[in-house]
What does this fold into?
Amino acid sequence: MTTTPTLATYALRDGAGVPLVLLHGFPLDHRMWVATAQALPEGIRTIGVDLPGQGHSDVGGLPESLDDAAEAVYRTLRDQGEGNAVVAGLSMGGYVALALAERHPGFVHGIGLVDTKSTADSEEARANRLRIADEAVNDQTIAPVLSMPAKLLGPTSILERRNLFPAVEAWIRAQSPTGVAWAQRAMAARPDRTRVLEEYDGPVAVVVGAEDKITPLAEAEHMVHAARDATLTVVPNAGHMSAVEEPAAVAAALARLHRRVTHRA
Ligand code: MLT
It folds into this structure.
């Protein structure tokens, strides 16, 4: 029998009411959300989570599946007494947010999808992930992901926000081969979850950096068109790490989503 690990969580912002839960991208941890949480308006209780195998969260015996990651997020929050949440995820975090909304739609009162997509990988992307996972495990290395900051950050950040490249690089260097391999295999196995958006009743906020080449505007528009009640925010001068590159703009979009949820209640 699989035991679901309890994940590391972080109170990123004090407040009351429905919490805003922030799920990070790959190969990172909750720290990528700290600047966004600081830029939120007062009063939105904000919780960061390290996904399985990332940051301070163990993989345990968890199968390599984002469904299991979503279940671990759900159980961790529920065990802390949370009965609902607005769940926002960047890239891999967005894939997990959709899996969570699919499994526990009554728990997820709003979804934030930042620099992410609802579609599955191409065969080529999947094969590449599995190759990276094998190398990480066989050679006990995270070398295959060390060059990622140049792809994650947009050209404006690389040129003009010089402090971000070393910060993202340091977050990546803190990850483990086991966690990198787990996440790559779990992402490779994920299905297309566009249908989750078609069936989801709550408000959705889609956010994308105008310079995001990994999950570009077309993927964001696909999600907006699929969802019943979605807004789209395009963040100028930001790439795939819009929450790191332009935290105030992403915080404003997530605060609007949180307001839509609380006004519905
Ligand atoms: C991420 O930022 O989480 C990754 O780019 C996701 C992915 O590899 O699909």
Notes: Residues 247-264 form the longest helix (18 residues). The chain has one domain: 9-120+190-264.
